[in-house]
Amino acid sequence: MINEILLIAFLTTFIVFIIFLVKRISLYKLKIDLMSLVVHEFKEASKGGVGYMHFSISAGIVLSVLLAIFHYLYPLAFALWIISIPIMAGLAAAAAYRVGVFIRSGIIHRRLGEGRDFVAESNKMQLILLFIILLTLTDILFSIFATWLSLAIGTVRNALLAAFYVKPAANLIVNYKREITHFKTPFRLEDVIEGRLKPEEVKFGYEKIADVDKEVVLSCQSCGEIGACDANCPAVAAGRLLSPRVVVRTVALNSNNPNYELALKLEPQVWACTTCGMCVYSCPVKVNHLDVIYGVRRALVAQSRVDKKVADVLMSVSQYNNTMSMPNSGRHDWLRDLGVKLIGENPEAEYLLWVGCMGSFDGRTREIVKAFVEILKKANMLEKIAVLGDEETCCGDPVRRIGEESRFQEIVLANKEIFEKYGVKKLITICPHGYNVFKNEYPNFGVKLEVYHHTHILQQLVEEGRIAITPGDRLMTIHDPCYLARYNKVVDPQRRILIRLGQLKEPPRRGEKTFCCGAGGGNYWYDVPEEKRISHIRFEELAATGARTIVTLCPFCNAMLSDAKRTKESPVEVKDIAEVVVERLL
Q1: What separation in angstroms does the CA of 42 have from each of 45, 56, 136, 448, 512?
Q2: Could you write out the DSSP letters of every residue in 313-337?
Q3: Are strands 351-354 and 385-386 parallel, antiparallel or unpaired?
Q4: What are the mean pLDDT values of the chain's consecutive 10-residue runs (586 residues total)?
Q5: For residue 191, what pLDDT is reported?
Q6: Is 240 found in the same domain as 209?
């Protein structure tokens, strides 16, 4: 009799959780594909680490429900229990992980100077999650040995789920497909220009909680203090004044106070962010921390509350049309000396080579472009490319990441006219930031291009035999740029090239899980207080592989790691992949 009563209590509390979950999901007003969600969760579990631990929690809850329903069919219950053994191992690992997160969170809270109320709420949520994990583990563990105890424990767990874990579960179910490349456009400048939107109706950023978009608030409220964002954040590792977890929890805990001064509270944290995207990539429940970072930055820029160096970059783009504070006139004259024609001189060119601000003006980056051009010349492709010359300006990525949305959209519309003027359909860039903005953000403004990183072109030339290369025995390692590997999943081309040129030794953090160089999000142009430079952390990790050459795929990564090399007086070389290839040309 006691088992029947406890089963009713168990199922009742679980149904309450499901009802609350459905109601929460309805707030998003989005369609759900449950089968696709299940496939996604298995893929996340296969990655190991936090992905498997979170999968163990979800799977553990499902298994505990099945064990409760079929407890009277012992053979079936026993089979389910055997199946759940690896899940119980994952739950045990998750519990141990939670203890580490709790300790690390305390250190971060003290570093940021968080108030007593915030810390209390944070600790409460973390302890509840730990309790849910432990209850799920013991529920499954005792399910075939002491049914009444298992049902009692499961009932308490279900009640906690209904009270505290509806929001994280709903956000995962709704947003699991959202790509890290998704950038929330706050307004459209064309609507203002054409009179569809009044200038006074434009909302520039998140100055107060009332300014935060509803879907962003829902996302922030879904944070379960899992801590994967902090664990993988380069800014946290470097001792900067940033915690992605604290950023979203600040929004969540003050979401009922429309006048809360969000920008004032988060100002130091948002400028410490490199926008590497590891927080969003790592979050098991798909909270998007970057929406808040960008929203607050836009508010600060609109109020001119920016560092002098940030203001200088924005002024440079406004005055010179580039980020380097250099007159734009003649930016590609040196390329013409290499045989590269302007697009007006070569209108039949298949590709526009977007050189970029760094490639046009920075001496070190010019060497990378020269190497790439030499490879194209060797492959008889020089007539297939052209450059814009003085008509090339900033791609807009730095100003958008910094928070100057209006200027970004002005740049996009200007470049759109130029692309249409010359009929540009295909574009090559050496910069992952340019690659990302052209590929994923320009289309939102009606610009459709086939976008290639120079690594794609190099891979094609090598594998098609259009350039002859000689293999060597040099030991190399790859630094994957965040905006290439994590944002755009370009991981294989560089490896398929380098294994033909020498030996490759991978660092622990690589591919989509790469570690930031420290330059992203505009950080290249201004200083951020930190205990240890992000670039130095990364350089040490790469050098520890024993490689003689660190291969980069981004001018900013190259600059940051080269600076770390000089500071540490290391014999390890830092070279772009084009430079490595050109050295092995026959």
Answers
A1: 5, 10, 19, 34, 18
A2: HHHHHHHHSSTTS---TTTTHHHHT
A3: parallel
A4: 91 96 91 86 87 93 94 90 95 95 96 96 96 96 93 96 95 92 90 84 92 96 95 97 98 97 97 97 95 97 95 96 94 94 96 97 97 97 97 97 96 97 98 98 96 98 94 94 98 96 96 97 95 98 97 98 97 98 92
A5: 86
A6: yes
Phi-psi region of 277 (alpha: psi -120 to 50; beta: other; left: phi over 0): left
Indicate the residue among 391, 421, 453 that finishes a domain. 453
Claim to verify: residue 6 and residue 65 sit in the same structural domain: yes
Residue 75 CB coordination number (10 Å): 8
d(C-alpha 224, C-alpha 285), whole Å? 8
Write down the pLDDT at residue 74: 87
In a domain, 327, yes or no: yes
Contact 220, 249 (CB under 8 A): yes
Q: What is the domain-level CATH number for residue 350?
A: 3.40.50
Co-location of 134 and 196 in the same domain: no
Are both 104 and 196 inside the same structural domain? no
Q: Does residue 336 sit in the same domain as residue 409?
A: yes
Give which of 160, 135, 176, 207 is closest to 41, Cα–Cα: 176
Report in angstroms the alpha-carbon separations of 87 from 56, 143, 208.
5, 14, 43
Q: Which two tokens stand for residue 291?
A: 């929406």
> Tell me, what's the pLDDT at 204?
86
Residues spanned by the domain of 365: 313-430+443-453
Long-range CB pairs of 364-371, under 8 A, 24+ apart, other chains included: 364/555, 364/558, 364/559, 364/562, 365/430, 365/555, 365/558, 365/559, 366/334, 367/579, 368/430, 368/555, 368/558, 368/576, 368/578, 368/579, 369/335, 369/430, 370/338, 371/576, 371/578, 371/579, 371/581, 371/582
State the amino acid at position 291 in one-letter form: D
pTM, entire model: 0.94
| Cβ contact 55:45 at 8 Å | yes
Domain-located, residue 366? yes
Cβ atoms of 436 and 181 closer than 8 Å? yes
Last residue of a domain, one of 453, 484, 518: 453
The answer to whether residue 182 sits within a structural domain is no
Please tell me the distance from the alpha carbon of residue 414 to that of residue 392, in angstroms, as a whole number: 10
Q: Are residues 507 and 471 in the same domain?
A: yes
User: Domain tally for the chain?
Assistant: 4
437 assigned to some structural domain:
no
Angstrom CA distances, 565 to 52, 342, 535, 539, 571, stand at 36, 36, 9, 7, 8
Do residue 255 and residue 320 come from a single domain? no
Q: Are 140 and 84 in contact (CB under 8 A)?
A: yes
Are 107 and 59 found together in one domain? yes
